[in-house]
Amino acid sequence: MLKNKTKSSIGVFDSGLGGLTVLKHLLEKLPPYDYLYLGDTARVPYGGHSQEVIYRYTKEAMDFLFSQGCRLVILACNTASSQALRRLQQEYLPEKYPDRRILGVIIPLAEYASKSNNIGVIGTRATIASKAYEHEIKKLNPQASVVSNSAPLLVPLIEEGLAGSDVTNKLLKKYLRPLKIKKIKTLILGCTHYSFLLKDIRRIMGNNCRVPDPGEIVANSLKNYLIKHNNLVSAHKKPGSRHFYLSDKPENFIKLGERFLGQKIDNWKIISL
Ligand code: DGL
C-alpha cells in the first residue's frame, strides 16, 4: 500500500534492481527528501536493446514519474543515461516539463575517473558501444587511456539473485581479464547493477586498482547540485517518504532489494508504463 506521497519528490529510475545501489547512498546522504523509485521489472534488461527502444522505455518511465509529482529524476541507469538522457534533456523536457530536471550517472563518474590516466570501464552492451565514458573522460583528461569491456550476462544473473555465486564470479573474471591485463588504475562500474558485485570485483582487480562505489559518487554529486538548485525539491526536517513502483511482479525485487538496502520495502505498487 502506498501512503503519504508528496508533490515534490526525487525520482530514481532503473530498468530493475540496479538503481537501488544509488538509492542506498541517497537515503544515507540526503535523507530528508521524498523518493519515488521506479524499476521497469517487466522489461529489464535494457542493455541489449537499440537506442530507439531504450529511449522509448525511458521516456515512458519519465512520463510516469513526472505524473506522480517528481520535480527531479535521477537516471540511476547507465544504459538509459548513455542512450536517452541527452534527447530527454534537449527535446522532451523543454517541450513537456520545462521546470523539471533529469540527471544521469555518467558525468559524475567520468569526473571521478578523469583524475586517473589509466582507466577501465565495464557496462552493458549499449553503454559500452556508445563510448559515452570515453568521450566524457577525454573531455576532462585528454591524456587518459580508457579501455572498456561489455559484460552483458551480469545484469540477468544479479536480477536472479546470483550475485556472489560461482557462476557469476567465473564470468566476472572473464569480463575483467582484458582490463587487468592493461593494468588499469581505476575501474568504473558503468552499470548500476554491478555494485551488487562490488566486493568480488575489488577482490579480483586487486590492491593496485581503485574501484569506487558509483552510488556514493552520484550521491555526493546530487548533494552539490541540490545546494545550487535549492528550490527544485523540498526537504523535510526528518527523513522523507520512500515509495517503490514496479512494472511487473515484485517478489524478487523486494526480496533482493530488502537484503541490499538493509531495510523493509513495504510502500510498493505495480504499475503499467
Ligand atoms: N542498471 C542498468 C545500467 O546501469 C542496467 C542495464 C540493463 O537493464 O541492462 O546500465
Describe the structure.
The chain is of the alpha/beta class and 273 residues long. It folds into two domains: 9-104 and 216-270, Rossmann fold; 107-214, Rossmann fold (3-Layer(aba) Sandwich), CATH 3.40.50.1860. Helices cover 45% and strands 16% of the residues. It has twelve helices and nine strands. Strands 4-3-1-2-8-9 form a six-stranded parallel beta sheet, with helices on both faces. The chain has a three-stranded parallel beta sheet with strand order 6-5-7, sandwiched between helices. Helix 1 crosses helix 11 (214-228), helix 5 (106-113) packs across helix 7 (132-140) and helix 9 (166-181) packs across helix 10. The longest helix has 17 residues, at 51-67. The relative contact order is 0.20. D-glutamic acid (DGL) binds next to helix 3. Residues 14-15, 18, 44-47, 77-79, 124, 127, 155, 191-193 line the site of D-glutamic acid (DGL).
State the main characteristics:
273 residues, Rossmann fold, 2 domains, 6-stranded parallel sheet, 16% strand, binds D-glutamic acid
Order of helices and strands: EHEHEHHEHEHHEHHEHHEHE
Helix share bin: 40-55%
Unique ligands: D-glutamic acid
Shape: globular
**What is the CATH-assigned architecture of the largest domain?**
3-Layer(aba) Sandwich
The span between the termini is 19 Å
Tally of separate domains: 2
Low-pLDDT segments, ≥5 res: 1-5
Radius of gyration in whole Å, from Cα?
A: 18 Å
